[in-house]
Amino acid sequence: MGNSALRAHLETAQKTGVFQLTGRGLTEFPEELQRLTSNLRTIDLSNNKMESLPPLLIGKFTLLKSLALNHNKLTVLPEELCKLKKLESLQLNDNHLTQLPASFGQLSALKTLSLSGNRLRAVPAQLCDLRHLDVVDLSKNQIQSVPDSVGQLQAIELNLNQNQISQISVRISRCPRLKVLRLEENCLELSMLPQSILSDSQISLLAVEGNLFEIKKLRELEGYEKYMERFTATKKKFA
User: Fold this and answer.
1) More confident residue, 4 or 56
2) What is the distance, to the nearest Å, from the Cα of residue 125 to the centroid of all Cα atoms in its chain?
3) Which of 102, 60, 105 is nearest to 77 (CA)?
4) How many domains are there within the chain?
5) Among 49, 157, 162, 211, which one is least packed by beta carbons within 10 Å?
6) Range of 76's domain?
7) Cβ atoms of 175 and 155 closer than 8 Å
8) What is the pTM of this model?
9) Which Gene3D superfamilies does the protein's record reference (predicted)?
């Protein structure tokens, strides 16, 4: 991409607060964005070939609300990313991430987090520190179990489709705001699904197709009627 094209993008971004440069084969985060650290509210650099983010630069976008880096080759995220106190949406689908930075819980404004199609082997414990998190997508990773810490998660929707989950902590039923739980295409036996999800949780949509049991068996579990009451009430609300 020529300098003049980049300059045009930068000029537009200066006026709009939005910098979008997708599918251009970029191997590095554009250093030129340094000039716009106090302007930008949205950055979208999806569908490129970036393997890393510049630590010193990324932490300076203090007004950034949305960062999309889907379909890159990121293997690690710098701790400096966690300084973005206004960030509400972070899209990192289809990268090579195996974990999140230790201080990820400092992204205090984060509402939407997409990490589908990465290489996570566990549900990151840092997510439990995010008080405003609404939607978390961890589908298409290599997660094998859902730990006790999940009970602290504030999310309304948790997507764990297409992992290798065979165990789920009963504490998932304690999630105060969790309404939608997606567990399709995992390795769950029916006996490993905590019945309290049905009988004693806020969850009103439980998606479990494609596991190691027939869906009709779910209907025989104790608490299924209670779950259906929540499911029907929610459906009515959105009808």
Assistant:
1) 56
2) 13
3) 102
4) 1
5) 49
6) 1-119
7) yes
8) 0.96
9) Ribonuclease Inhibitor (3.80.10.10)
